[in-house]
Amino acid sequence: MTTILDRILKEKEKEVARLKKEYVDTDRGLDDQHRSLYNAFMNSNHLNVISEIKRASPSKGDIDVGVNPVEQAKQYVEAGAGAISVLTDTPFFKGTMDDLRKVREVVDVPILCKDFIIDTIQIDRAKASGADVILLIASALSQAELDQLYQYAKSKQLEVLFEVHNEEELAVAKEIGANIIGINNRDLKTFDVRLDVTEQLAGSITSPDTLIISESGFRTADDAERIVQTGARGILVGETLMRSDNLAEALANFKVSLVGERA
Ligand SMILES: O=C(O)c1ccccc1NCC(=O)[C@H](O)[C@H](O)COP(=O)(O)O
Hints:
Blueprint: H1 4-22, H2 37-42, E1 48-53, E2 56-57, E3 61-62, H3 69-78, E4 83-87, H4 97-106, E5 111-114, H5 120-129, E6 133-137, H6 143-155, E7 159-164, H7 167-176, E8 180-184, H8 196-202, E9 211-215, H9 221-228, E10 234-237, H10 239-242, H11 247-254
Parallel strand pairs: 1-4, 1-10, 4-5, 5-6, 6-7, 7-8, 8-9, 9-10
Antiparallel strand pairs: 2-3
The structure holds ligand LARABZUK.
């Protein structure tokens, strides 16, 4: 059966083929600011939120296609976001690389380039557009390919959010040495979203030096309270924030104290 992830990856192959003909790398390595998601989240005493700019998605259709990414990003930071995620895929999420470039001009928090990366040329483009972190999805590639892209991103001073969904993918993340592991609660094949995916997997991450981010499906303060028990120090939230008419309240609900750091 062809899954949505298969379809997305097929489109990415075409995009990469186009990029290889057209893309000229403009990154001159002059941005030496090193906005580290890892350091910011590891040194915080509350759960931090990567707030996502998400115009549309395969599971929900249009969410806010006409959003102004610059205004949305500024409001996220004002409301207390620890980092911003920009969905840059166009065919399935209606985002653009231009969204990311514009957001970079107005915020100083770390920016995640949320895309489906299968080739180093996409990493070059993310870096040149102002990203600090890229996403690698374990279920999208072989271990050898993931390892190569991981090392390449690191050589470009980018951090990597290494996304897993099950124990096998988590084992790959550990072998590669990923220090930021995203546990996606959304099954990218069925769209089923369950916070217990993080609850089941986080216990197998025993290194205190690994930053755990729980991704997808966060709606309420209770969700945050639940997930903080797993050892996660960050969550990635898209749809709930995109639909919120009170971002300060929505983000405050998620920024619960970390376990062990409560008064
Ligand atoms: O969101 C989808 O429908 C989706 C489908 C296929 C691949 C990826 C998908 N989403 C990417 C994400 O991981 C989420 O945008 C992110 O974790 C935020 O999720 P949410 O807060 O549930 O919008």
